[in-house]
């Protein structure tokens, strides 16, 4: 015989398997009651005794032979020489209880199942099993005096016994549970010391959070009597004036649609409706809605303010909620129930709280008398409106099986259900394996086969929804998830939450999904899969501190020692470091993953993923060659292990690295191969990403028209699939392509739309990227206030994200804004902060890029020496990193600086190091090199070579179809016409370009060349009018130091070589190191006299003699 000690303080589900139908009841002086169980049959699944002490905090289902099982406040402890065994999952597991019911104790037999209440309404869970030793007296626990009578009242109907303990007829398990009383001292929070995670044990959710909450197993439950009301507050709508409260859907609907409310605010409204028209004290609202999570009592008034704002209510003349100062709040608006959940059909009056409790109790607990319901009403009124506790119902095998944390890709959405049909189940498992290997097409086929075999399988439908989402088919995924929720399957509470979380993810509502996954992990801390999904949601929300806390909770669950070498956890930390903009930390974690995988051959997929992470970190750190090697190894290892999706991902990364190196043919080949693999796998999302990267290669090649056409097609496809984030990413890429294509306004529209889509899909990372790019664009469009606002917003977001790289970019842009506003000290401070962040993360490529961008602004501001230093550092970084495209850009800009400084030899040496026809160069950048070399030939006096170089630049720019740069090349050729004496052709070209050029600085440069033509034709007054009425005004609005100096020079010449003006201009040019302009001023000062020997020597030394002759001749009047 097995004596079974029962206590109302027991805190878990514990089930005892037995064939016996006879029990003997005995009460003890300590308040406990024991039932004697005769004969027992062992379970078929055996677990070593040592594992019992770590039993999951859900169900402890045990079978014993000649063992005394004592149920104590800390769990199940067994005293016997014979090992006990754990029962893992069963189709006959205890049905899920309606939300709000206390945790219960289940005793199951072959023919009947009975339940006893636990003493804790919070579902306290802790395992304290010890085999081979008697339980200590201290572990037994006492029943509160006021609860002892409930034990006696409960035991008789439970066991169907008289005082003598004779066996009786079985009773309904949920009817027995209706007598449960939740002790007052247990109601205020989680009392479980074992769940040492950051999450609250007593998560409060409305029933609408769970699509299948409260359902019961119809096979084991009696039907309610005819005529009994079976509706419940949980599945109702209420009309409150012109508003509807959808309790099941968890939303308030107004005349204009759904009203966004925080969860606690919605729960507050639920409770006010349930208590209406009673006054609800502040303390009660704090306990019910916030529990231990309340930061201060002020949260209640804040919730009321939000409710009044939602209702449009006035606290002075309230229509909805009345405030009683220092007493509480009450709902004064009539809350009419809408029958059957159909809008427009209302009941006469709102149900009272007791009626609601009774209705739900009848639905969930078949009873035979009104007396049996009194305990349920009492318990229900104490736990309130189904917004209190999520009860665990069922034990999952995954909680007991080690290694689950490694099987993320093969883990099903729902942990506790499988298809019942054997063939459907086989297809379901085949789908999980296919998804683990990244073969989403095979996964979809197998899941559809499983659904054809068993259409009512909620597990297959849920996983199909996830696979469709991973393919990027979000509309289809939402429909399939809705179908899964509509199957009305008897899910456990945890699986119901998981399904609701999946639906939230598909709606891009990661905030709600994260909240739901927190609930699962709070009650099942061994379910690391839900914890990892929570981590993914927190990353999507850019809540990096929460993600770090979740990883810490997983560490505690796994144990610190095991966590140190757990590959999946280490990989998650590497990804968090990457998202935080810490590539050095990312690089440190990846090798630890590889080391952990050396000891675990089953984690080949994680090892390949770690290599890809390592390659990405090396790329960010500027170690391009190392990154390429690691990406290649990742692709090989993933392919050898059958992990096709990771192989494709590594191949895509190889293509991106090749593009950074300027090896465009290799880049195009690798990216297209990655796209082909993704298409074969049915992974449309990543195939689209690869196609976007391919469009960047097209842009770099100079085919901007083709790139824009492809991006438009990608955006259209993403729109047809309902993939908002893919549309946002594509619009971002399109805007970044339109800008160098000379379409700044189109780029602005694309980037602004991308930003809105990122905001709508709650993608903070994407929004930050859009903001920083918009900041740069607004600056180029001279919309400086908007540029500053966008960059400040980007900086705020990047700081929230902990992304140092993004912060550095935003700070660099803000430094430019400060320079435009004349805040030199602020500009220097922001610039140093930006560079310090880049150097801190070892991002040499980004250091080069930010220096390049800042140098452009320094040159525009007239700080030529500072600009040259920055360009030189950028060129050196790009040269070391073998980034051909950026190297060409930096070389052209640096050489042009040397030409402005009249240092022709330095410019020639740099251009020789950066040939325009180098492999991997971008056409536009190669054109810039040709144009710079043409300028060099022009200054040396070789006009024929200069024209050829400028014509090559023009051809490349025409090939790229960038109109703005085509105009610049035509202006360069017009200057050659001027030097060659083709004044009429030069004038016609300049006038045409002045009318066509959109960039105000380019137009000013065209007007300056036109003024020089007019001076050469002795039309000085016309030149002066042009300069005073147009050019100087343009440059006042759009400052540029070099153009401003040249305009002063031309105006002085137009006014008859005004010596005072020429001297002032020359001195300013020399201060800014614009030596070429200073030499032109000196030539103008001595236009009618022989050149001073010092000037002649300077011109000869710099190789500018031939140029000087032509410049002096153009200053003389002619009338051709």
Structure commentary:
This protein has 1120 residues and is of the alpha+beta class. Among the domains are: 2-182, no CATH class; 233-365, Arc Repressor Mutant, subunit A; 565-695, Serine Threonine Protein Phosphatase 5, Tetratricopeptide repeat (Alpha Horseshoe); 702-762; 877-1115, Alpha Horseshoe (Serine Threonine Protein Phosphatase 5, Tetratricopeptide repeat), CATH 1.25.40.10. The strands form five sheets. It has a five-stranded mixed sheet, covered by helices on one side. Strand 13 (251-254) and strand 14 (257-259) form a beta hairpin. Helix 31 (844-861) packs parallel to helix 33 and helix 32 packs antiparallel against helix 33 (884-900). The termini are far apart. Mean pLDDT is 71; it is low at 1-235 and 340-408.
Which features characterize this protein?
five-stranded antiparallel beta sheet, 45 helices, alpha+beta, Serine Threonine Protein Phosphatase 5, Tetratricopeptide repeat, 1120 residues, five-stranded mixed beta sheet
Question: Which helices and strands appear, and what pairs or packs with what?
Answer:
Elements: E1 2-6, E2 13-16, E3 23-27, E4 33-37, E5 59-63, E6 68-72, E7 75-79, E8 85-86, E9 104-108, E10 113-117, H1 145-159, H2 173-177, E11 237-240, E12 243-246, E13 251-254, E14 257-259, H3 263-275, E15 280-281, H4 282-290, H5 299-311, E16 321-324, E17 328-331, E18 335-338, H6 353-364, H7 371-383, H8 422-436, H9 440-453, H10 458-470, H11 474-485, H12 493-506, H13 510-523, H14 528-540, H15 544-558, H16 560-564, H17 567-579, H18 583-598, H19 604-620, H20 624-640, H21 644-661, H22 664-681, H23 684-701, H24 704-721, H25 724-738, H26 744-760, H27 764-780, H28 784-801, H29 804-820, H30 824-840, H31 844-861, H32 864-880, H33 884-900, H34 904-913, H35 923-940, H36 943-960, H37 963-979, H38 983-996, H39 1000-1016, H40 1020-1037, H41 1041-1054, H42 1059-1071, H43 1075-1085, H44 1093-1102, H45 1105-1115
Helix pairs in contact: 3-4, 3-5, 6-7, 8-9, 9-10, 10-11, 11-12, 12-13, 13-14, 14-15, 15-17, 17-18, 17-19, 18-19, 19-20, 19-21, 20-21, 21-22, 21-23, 22-23, 23-24, 23-25, 24-25, 25-26, 25-27, 26-27, 27-28, 27-29, 28-29, 29-30, 29-31, 30-31, 31-32, 31-33, 32-33, 33-34, 33-35, 34-35, 35-36, 35-37, ...
